[in-house]
Amino acid sequence: EDQVTQSPEALRLQEGESSSLNCSYTVSGLRGLFWYRQDPGKGPEFLFTLYSAGEEKEKERLKATLTKKESFLHITAPKPEDSATYLCAVQPLYSGNTGKLIFGQGTTLQVKP
Amino acid sequence: GAGVSQSPRYKVAKRGQDVALRCDPISGHVSLFWYQQALGQGPEFLTYFQNEAQLDKSGLPSDRFFAERPEGSVSTLKIQRTQQEDSAVYLCASSLQGHTGELFFGEGSRLTVL
Q: A98 at the B interface (CB within 8 A)?
């Protein structure tokens, strides 16, 4: 069964304290892995797409990496405005052209000033 | 606006009532998705449209759930005879092409069934 598990469920950091969020996945063929950010009361906002092991993407203080079994979202020197829930999702090969995504439960990040 | 628009933002229904949730996608986006998000969980896929064709409805939890996109633009998700377990946020997303995985989500419609 295709599955996405994120850890930790919640993470509290001090401003400037770097850390990583983990996304472990089991899928019968990976078309792509995606990271989204979700603020309270809002819909998810796209951050990154990763397609193959070894690939890395960066945006401001965020860097996403991918291996054959997991992905990491590294947050360098976070600021309070980085506080949000970060969602990981996989797109199985069998999804064809439908674009169906399987999401993890998310990691809720709180950055304190 | 330029984003995905959903209405109503909040809906309270008595158990057994029918509800309709509307999604207005980004203009020109071929693909439209509906996801269900329970409190504290990630979104779960419900159904997918490419233009007016519903190509995947494997995630619809029961035959009480029905979605349509008759003209390939606005979509409606209808839930008949609502149950308490239907309480969730219903998210609509659109994209230029379905397989990109880069989805643009609306703010969601929060349904509470009493």
A: yes
pLDDT 10s digits, B75-114: 999 999 999 999 999 999 999 876 678 999 999 999 999 9
Structure-block tokens of residue A36: 């989204």
Q: Is the distance from CB of B101 to CB of A34 less than 8 angstroms? A: yes
Q: Which residues of A touch B33 (CB under 8 A)?
A: 99-100
The residues that bridge with B20 in the sheet, in sequence order, are B78
- Residue B49's nearest CA partner among B70, B64, B65, B28 is B70
From residue A12, alpha-carbon distances to A8, A17, A80, A106 in Å are 10, 10, 11, 14
Smallest Cα–Cα separation from B24: which of B82, B71, B87, B89?
A: B71
Q: How far apart are CA B78 and CA B54, in angstroms?
A: 14
Interface of A with B in 69-88 (CB under 8 A): 87
Q: Are B23 and B34 in contact (CB under 8 A)?
A: yes
Among A61, A13, A2, residue whose Cα is nearest residue B44: A2
Closest CA to B23 of B111, B114, B105: B105
Report the residue from A99, A104, A106 with minimal CB separation from B31: A99
Contact indicator for A66, A104 with CB cutoff of 8 Å:
no
Contact A67, A19 (CB under 8 A): no
Across chain A, mean pLDDT equals 95
